[in-house]
Design a protein that fits this description.
The protein is mainly beta and 130 residues long. It contains one helix and eight strands; from the N terminus they run E-H-E-E-E-E-E-E-E.
Length: 130
């Protein structure tokens, strides 16, 4: 592992692609050569609601809103998000994201990634879904 690394998140390839239309994700853990930190830049187009939710077995995460607004679903409770909000999420909390009318950009920061990963994916159940 190197002693430091500098990576421009906007220069990384979008790893989400066609799997989630309207959502871009640029993952930097590997490029940063980090043992303990995962840093990801997410960009949601206007009014895009994540159809999938996820939790973790071990990894705590924090999200920093850098542009736009939206909502986050945390264990069935909806919370508004605005620029410069920081949300810390315990591993077991099921979470999903929705962008507001101007879209939403945030940085996700994750802790050490267990070997083989620890993400648990499921359907997002928004209380106001039609």
């Amino acid at each position: 592992m190197s002693r430091f690394a500098i990576v421009n998140l906007l220069e990384l390839e979008d790893s989400v692609g066609d799997r989630a239309p309207g959502i871009e994700g640029r993952f930097a853990r590997k490029q940063l050569d980090s043992r303990d930190l995962g840093i990801t830049h997410f960009r949601y187009a206007a009014n895009v609601r994540g159809a999938a939710a996820h939790s973790h077995r071990e990894q705590e995460e924090a999200y920093v809103v850098v542009a736009g607004s939206g909502r986050i679903l945390l264990d069935g409770e909806v919370h508004d998000l605005r620029r410069w909000d920081v949300v810390r999420v315990a591993p077991e909390v099921v979470r999903a994201i929705e962008a507001g009318p101007d879209g939403l950009e945030f940085i996700a920061v994750g802790g050490p990634k267990p070997e083989g990963g620890d993400g648990v994916v499921g359907a997002a159940t928004w209380p106001d879904a039609e």
